[in-house]
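Hi team,

As requested, here is the filled-out complex form for the manganese (II) ion run. I kept the field names the same as last time so the parser does not choke. Let me know if anything looks off before we queue the next batch.

— J.
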Amino acid sequence: MSLNHYQKKRNFKKTSEPKGKISGKKSGHAFVVQKHDASQLHFDFRLEVDGVLKSWAVPKGPSLNPKEKRLAVQTEDHPLDYKDFEGVIPEGEYGAGVVMIWDHGNFKNLANRSLTKCLQQGLIEISLEGHRLKGGFALKFFRMDNKKRLWLLIKMNDDQADRKRKPVSTQTKSIKTGRTLYQIKKQSH
Ligand code: MN
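And here is what came back:
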């Protein structure tokens, strides 16, 4: 686990994102979904694994409908502190735009092997205990594209599956502060 890629992409004199260090604790199972209004609006899905946040950019955000597979492009590991980051990444910096904490909570590994093994094998099965996202989700690796690992994020067909509720489009405020993207932008100067 390394934060080299994360730290190289950013100038911490300019951005207020955490510089981060790898946490010594290995016990946590936090997840966060951040809505990120950058050059293209997307949702960043992050899972705590061995002291860092394994991360995926999900262009359309998670769906509660098991029939809708959502593309999830794996991105660089982020520091654990990043789960509390909500604010503005300044112009000219990597990921410039507004970041909102859209959902957060803990997750459980549903597989009987370690998450590190699951990541290597390309199949992660977890249960989320969030506010807007609950129940089983699977992340399935399907191919490499230009050195990027492409996965699919799929809701499992359990009693939390819902073909009608579309929280990505109906829940537009921060789960942490109740602010809209616009309010975060205005209040971060
Ligand atoms: Mn992002």
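Two things worth flagging: The two ends are 33 Å apart (CA to CA). Strands lie at 30-37, 41-49, 52-58, 70-79, 87-89, 97-109, 123-129, 134-145, 148-155.

Thanks,
J.
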